[in-house]
Specification:
- The complex is a heterodimer of chains A (636) and B (163).
- Chain A is built from 17 helices and 21 strands.
- With 636 residues, chain A is an alpha+beta fold.
- In chain A, strand 17 and strand 18 form a beta hairpin.
- In chain A, helix 2 packs across helix 3.
- Chain B is of the alpha+beta class and 163 residues long.
- Chain B has four helices and seven strands; from the N terminus they run E-H-H-E-E-E-E-H-E-E-H.
- Chain B has a four-stranded antiparallel β-sheet with strand order 1-2-3-4. A three-stranded antiparallel β-sheet of chain B has the order 5-6-7, with helices on both faces.
- The chains are: A alpha+beta (636), B alpha+beta (163).
- Strand 19 of chain A pairs antiparallel with strand 4 of chain B.
- Chain A: It comes from Agrococcus casei LMG 22410.
- Chain A: InterPro entries: YdbS-like_PH.
- Chain A: Keywords: Membrane, Transmembrane, Transmembrane helix.
- Chain A: It holds the Pfam family bPH_2.
């Protein structure tokens, strides 16, 4: 504590630097900025950066001016090339000049312009936000007032967007997303480094880490300047780092360039190649189809008809590529940070527990290269077109393309690290059955799963459900038990004849349905009972709403039952997979038909190689996976 | 059919008179579909009576089959309030069992269509955060629908969990 502590720290008192920093302090955000961010989050109403109206309404103004220029385009040319006079006889301005309404027209334009400017200014003045201990609020609108509250505990993600125009001015906007399609609070625009600090502060408060909640800063003392503007009044005042400031606050990285724990960054060449490969089968198919059509009809002009389609396709593929350039994933204390973009930069922080499902896929053409794609389910619809690149689908991607190591790094962020080796070895490419912890389709399901019979299967433990599907297009769905909304099993008449059934896990998000068909109906029945028990236990022990309140580092994002002997699902609960009501269903089913394999009839802990590996503690879990790991090596 | 997928529980069944709601709405739907197809084909095929007859007759047969199966559908609709979740079953041919933990129930709606009103029945609709849950329980008497709604909301309140 050699450096002086600022008078109003979070607790209004000096804090000893007892907490070692999880990462290096962020060099991009100055102490002054942090102070400003604190001032902004004092529970008072604040305004945005004064340039906000220009950026928010600026495009309208530009369009307006552009229309005027377009109208008078020929006239402007005429100023420079007088010989060209005569070409602009019938443009709107000439018509105005001749009709005698010129003065009125100019007056109208000026009035409209003034109204615009006044409107922008007033709306700027009326647009205020405040950040209190448990809510972010935004008030806006001139005639129709809108007041939006975002409870911190329900924040799904915070997205920092820097559209290219705003980047020129060094500004950024924060979108605080709630669990609904239209549930975001948009703080636009703020100074970029201030936005970064503010994001850290909001996330810190949402995490519920040990600190005094509520109005952190004594009002009246602070916020002498903060009541007028939401931006730093003293830029350049880089005072260095003061020991009294909490490390969590300094930790969140400032920018793409300064990410401390960057785990995955996208290689442009790989991105382009993967995109091309993904597109290749379709391109080949289309080319053949077109050739066939042309040869069959002998009409070469038909080719012209495909030109617009081709252009649209190329533009779409290109747009997708541009949006994913400089894609990177980093780990922060407040969750995963996904950043992307070249000109307009977007960086989204997803706190733990806001990832509702994970899907790892490998298209056929990626196979020789060992590439994978990771996407996730989220509660909000990703923001489309708000920052120029309208790639809504990008918002659900954790990894556009990557090798096994990348997938592993991502998985380590979102599921318990000790589960990762299992998923990597058995789920991604494996096709082993019960000996690897997967319950798979019975042989009679061959008609429904021609190629993937052995691979089509599911693993369940007290944290995750892992669905493994597809041999040609490999897919792995990972559903955290704590995020499952409901479970269903179903059986149509054809499945009924084959005694097969389908199990579905309903989760939040676009990828909401995690479904696995062609399973033995007895197994499905057991899965159903087990899943309901597991989900209940995981819900009880889920702490992700305030992910930092237990004082631990914010990992994993799924935040299943804590890997300790004291987790909520007691082993005795798990011993009977059957639902509590009614007679033991497993027994009944086993009696009616021969079980596909011993697992359906045995209690879960009788067989160490059971597909549901209930582990009473983290240590044992690690051992189990360790054993399996050696098993893999033997097996291959 | 006892070898199909089955879950043993103390299932509560819906009101048997829900069958009439099913039958009436199936027949109305079939008649409307027949009329639409008939009129379209009447103009489209320039009075090709064979085509019209085949199509409308086909729809008639399908409607009839559907009407017969509504007996089973009504009989197989069931629900049970378990300790920690609400489980529902439906379907004879297309069986489906859904379990929703009480803590996951976001909204419980009561709905009543015109035909249901004639029979004094109401429908409970359960909304979770997942769009795909799709749990709808029709054929409850008005009093039971309301009491069940209240019970479920109370259970959901005490076990409220995050998403």
């Amino acid at each position: 504590m050699s450096t002086p502590t600022p008078p109003n720290d979070w607790n209004g008192q000096a804090q000893p630097p007892a907490h070692p920093s999880p990462g290096a302090p962020n060099p991009g955000v100055s102490q002054q900025t942090h102070q400003d961010a604190k001032n902004l989050s004092d529970g008072e109403w604040h305004r945005m950066h004064p340039l906000t109206p220009l950026l928010r309404g600026g495009l309208t103004l530009l369009v307006f001016i552009g229309v005027l220029i377009a109208w008078g385009r020929d006239r402007i040319i005429g100023w420079f090339f007088p010989d060209a006079y005569g070409y602009y006889e019938d443009d709107p301005i000439t018509m105005l000049l001749e009709s005698g309404w010129l003065i009125a027209a100019i007056a109208a334009v000026v009035v409209i312009l003034i109204l615009c400017v006044v409107g922008f200014y007033v709306s700027y003045r009326m647009r205020t936000f405040r950040i209190t201990g448990d809510v972010v609020e935004l008030r806006e609108g001139i005639l129709n007032r809108k007041h939006r509250r975002a409870p911190l505990g329900r924040i799904q993600s915070i997205e920092m967007q820097k559209p290219w125009l705003a980047r020129i001015f060094g500004l950024a906007k924060l979108e605080i997303e709630q669990a609904s399609s239209d549930g975001k609070v948009e703080l636009s625009f703020l100074k970029a480094d201030l936005a970064t600090a503010l994001r850290g502060e909001i996330l810190h408060r949402a995490s519920g880490r040990k600190r005094e909640e509520g109005q952190a800063t004594p009002q009246g003392q602070m916020a002498p300047q903060g009541h007028t503007s939401g931006f730093s009044q003293q830029p350049g005042a880089h005072a260095g780092f003061v020991g009294g400031v909490r490390n969590e606050f300094l930790n969140p990285e400032a920018d793409l360039q300064q990410q401390e724990h960057q785990l995955v960054s996208m290689h442009a060449g790989r991105l382009i190649a993967s995109s091309f490969l993904n597109f290749l089968p379709w391109a080949v198919f289309l080319t053949i189809a077109i050739i066939v059509i042309v040869v069959a009809t002998g009409e070469w002009l038909i080719l012209l008809g495909f030109v617009p389609t081709a252009i649209i396709t190329v533009v779409a593929v290109f747009g997708q590529l541009i949006g994913q350039l400089r894609f990177s994933v980093a780990s922060t204390v407040n969750g995963i940070r996904v950043s992307r973009g070249l000109a307009s930069v977007t960086s989204e922080t997803i706190p733990p527990g806001r990832i509702f499902s994970i899907t790892v896929t490998q298209p056929m053409m990626w196979r020789p290269f060992g590439w994978w794609k990771v996407s996730y389910g989220r509660a909000t619809m990703p923001t489309a077109s708000s920052n120029g690149n309208s790639q809504a689908s990008l918002g659900t991607v954790l990894l556009p393309v990557g090798n096994r190591a990348d997938v592993e790094a991502i998985l380590r962020l979102v599921i318990s690290p000790d589960r990762v080796p299992f998923v990597m070895h058995e789920a991604l490419e494996g096709s082993r059955g019960i000996e690897a912890g997967f319950i798979t389709s019975p042989k009679r399901a061959r008609a429904f799963r021609w190629f993937s019979l052995k691979r089509n299967g599911m693993h369940a433990n007290d944290e995750l459900f892992v669905l493994r599907k597809g041999r040609i297009w490999r897919t792995v769905n990972i559903v955290p038990a704590a995020r499952v909304q409901s479970v269903s099993i179903s059986q149509g008449p054809i499945y009924g004849l084959a005694k097969l059934a389908r199990v579905q896990f309903h989760t939040v998000g676009l990828l909401g349905l995690m479904s696995l068909g062609a399973m033995d109906q007895n197994d499905v029945n057991v899965i159903f009972g087990h899943a309901n028990t597991t989900v209940r236990g995981a819900m009880v022990s889920d702490k992700s709403e305030t992910w930092g309140s237990d004082g631990e580092a914010a990992k994993p994002a799924f935040d299943g039952p804590p890997p300790s002997p004291a987790y909520a699902v007691a082993p005795e609960t798990l011993q009977h997979l059957q639902p509590p009501a009614g007679p033991p269903m497993g027994a009944r089913i086993v009696q009616t038909g021969p079980p596909a394999h011993p697992s359906a009839s045995q209690p879960p802990q009788a067989d160490p190689n059971r597909w549901t590996q209930f582990s009473p503690g983290a240590q044992q879990t690690g051992d189990q996976f360790g054993d399996q790991q050696s098993d893999y090596q033997d097996g291959r | 059919m006892s070898d199909r997928i089955e879950i043993a529980a103390e299932w509560e069944r819906v009101e048997p008179r829900y069958l009439w709601v099913q039958l009436i709405s199936t027949i109305i739907g079939g008649v409307v579909l027949m009329a639409i197809v008939g009129v379209i084909l009447f103009f489209a095929t320039s009075q090709n009576w064979l085509a019209i007859g085949l199509s409308v007759g086909g729809i008639f047969v399908l409607t009839l089959i559907n009407a017969i199966f509504s007996f089973f559908r009504t009989r197989t609709l069931g629900y049970v309030q378990r300790q920690d979740d609400f489980m529902m079953r439906q379907g004879m041919m297309f069986r489906r069992f859904v379990a929703v933990p009480y803590g996951r129930l976001q909204i419980v709606d009561i709905e009543q269509g015109p035909i249901e009103r004639m029979f004094g029945l109401k429908k409970l609709k359960f909304v979770t955060a997942a769009a795909t849950s799709g749990v709808v329980l029709p054929g409850l008497s008005a009093a039971r629908a309301e009491s069940l709604r209240d019970e479920l909301v109370a259970s959901a309140e005490t076990r409220r969990a995050g998403l």
